[in-house]
Amino acid sequence: MATSRCKHRRPGIRRSIGRPGLATITATAIMFGLAGCLAPTLSESSPRHPGHGVAWLLRRSLNMNFAVGDSAIETVAVSGKYLVDFLEVPGSGEAYGRIGPTVTVRDLASGRTLWTLGSISGMPAVTARTLYIDKSGYDLRTGRQFGIPVRIPPGSVPDPAGGGLLVIAGPRAHRSLVSLNPRTGSTRWRVPSRSRFWFCGQIAASRAAVAVMRCGISGRGQYTYVVVKELDCFDPVTGRLRWKYPLIRGVLPLSQVLVTVAGRTVVAAERPDGPWSAMDARTGATLPGLTRLSNWLRTHQQHAFLGLGPGRTAVLAESYPDDRALRSLHVIDVTDGRLLWTTPVWHPLDRVTVGVTHRMLYELNGSELTAYSLRSGAAIGHLSLPVTFAGDAPGLNAELVPGRAEDPAELIAGSQHEALLANGLLVARTRGSGLAAIRIGKLVR
Q1: pLDDT in the model for residue 181
Q2: C-alpha angle 334-335-340 in degrees, rounded to nearest 5
Q3: Cβ proximity of 354 and 362 under 8 Å
Q4: Which of 5, 133, 222, 445 has its Cβ near the most Cβ atoms within 10 Å?
Q5: DSSP state letter for 389
Q6: Residues 126, 407, 104, 68, CA torsion sign
């Protein structure tokens, strides 16, 4: 692999986005590598307000004939009235270059850009009022930069119980899980790794629990490799270990284990296509419904797991691998696997996005948005929109998606595989390299 000779600028606030982010599409990245040090620049239209249920709509385009739609626009978080997102585009100067993402902070209600950061050296971590990268903090409202006394490790997530960050810090042999106040460097609690096993991978957290994996060494000599050994669950207020769950079925590299926490439920997928295990966040007691269901689904290979909803519900889409068509949506009880309701839908699976609140399930299919009661499955409302959205419905290899809170002040972490629901808006990617927000109140009177 050729080494890039491009000079990377330090992070700084800018009014337009102009440096590349993570390499996401291999073929596109190789093409861009041939272009030398010419970086793609991003232009963005001013948000439009077309009405008919759409609060705002903007379009993006890249130079060098790159399509933004071929790269992932991933929302990091919604915090109060702010939307924080970043754009992944091909790296500059080498086929697999990894130059950090470009971050944009927007006014959630209007879509207007407040400030941007370019040439970021690492993934951002967001709290209710602040964005952190490396050893710098940025005020979400103004973009004002200030130094902090500690370095923020990659993979840090908001601490729902403390207002700061949850981080995994230190070298492998002495790695700790820490509830950190980034502004002061102080900690509410710190949990050191035990001997042999160390903290690894993603941190999953809610106000009810913090879940994190531990890794260890398997094999001997040249056949030594790192595998996931167990899942630990902690009290988010004290850091006390509540329970641990062994993850030792076969060889499980870190990339093959997915963990999420939604309310009082912790779910681990021990391979991207299952089996899935659900546990009570406080006691660690197994909730057999999801395990029974995942075993059946893996046998028949006809469903996709879309995510967890509130009240120990899970949302699944019935689909068939041969035509990738979504035939119906199902909501099940994670506790016992009981089917709560089902509704027929006939759409290509790659055109559908599903979002869940505590009361509603929203199904976005291209330019059609339908709202269902999460309790009964009754169709509550429908909107035909003046814009077509890109489908984000994940298949069996997708990450687990927790349900969304309706508290407008709550920090909501997002993913490229889903829409975000906050403050009466559903924010999702559009076809044609855009981003738009839908007023979901238009559906529910």
Answers
A1: 95
A2: 60
A3: yes
A4: 133
A5: B
A6: positive
Per the CB < 8 A criterion, the answer to whether 143 and 11 are in contact is no
Alpha-carbon span 39 to 55, nearest angstrom? 32
**Residue 93 near residue 4 (C-beta atoms within 8 A):** yes
Q: What is the pLDDT of residue 5?
A: 35
pLDDT, averaged across the chain: 75
User: Domains in the chain, ordered, with CATH?
Assistant: 1-152 (no CATH), 155-286 (2.130.10.10), 302-445 (2.40.128.630)
Q: Chain centroid to CA 429: how far?
A: 14
**What is the pLDDT confidence band of residue 304, given thresholds at 50, 70 and 90?**
low
Output the DSSP codes for 423-443. Answer: TTEEEEEETTTEEEEEEGGGT
Q: Dmax over Cα atoms in the chain, in whole Å?
A: 65
d(CA 157, CA 125): 6
Q: Is it the case that residue 426 has pLDDT exceeding 60?
A: yes
| Residue appearing with tokens 């409302």 | 381
Q: In what order do the strands lie in the sheet with 145-152?
A: 125-126, 130-139, 145-152
Q: Count how many Cα atoms sit within 13 Å of the Cα of residue 179 in the half-sphere of its side chain.
A: 19
> What is the amino acid identity at position 70?
D
Assign 300 a pLDDT band (cuts: 50, 70, 90): low
| pLDDT value for 52 | 87
Question: Using only C-alpha atoms, what is the Rg of the chain?
Answer: 22
Helix (H, G, I), strand (E, B) or coil at 194: coil
What digits encode the pLDDT tens for the residues 367-386? 889 999 988 999 999 999 99
DSSP 240: -
Do 325 and 318 contact (CB within 8 A), yes or no?
no
As a whole number of angstroms, the distance between CA 179 and CA 166 comes to: 5
Asked if 362 and 369 touch (Cβ cutoff 8 Å), the reply is yes
Cis upstream peptide for 182 (omega within 30°): no
Residue 184 exposed, middle or buried by CB count within 10 Å (0-12, 13-18, 19+):
exposed
Q: What are phi and psi of 60, to 5 degrees?
A: -125, 150
Which of 394, 434, 437 is closest to 69 using CA atoms?
434
**pLDDT tens for residues 254-289?**
666 778 887 788 888 766 556 678 899 999 999 888
Is there a contact between 213 and 228 (Cβ–Cβ < 8 Å)?
A: yes
CA distance linking residue 179 with residue 197, whole number of Å: 20
More confident residue, 393 or 231: 231
Write the CB contacts of 368 (distance below 8 Å, at least 6 apart in sequence).
Answer: 382, 383, 384, 385
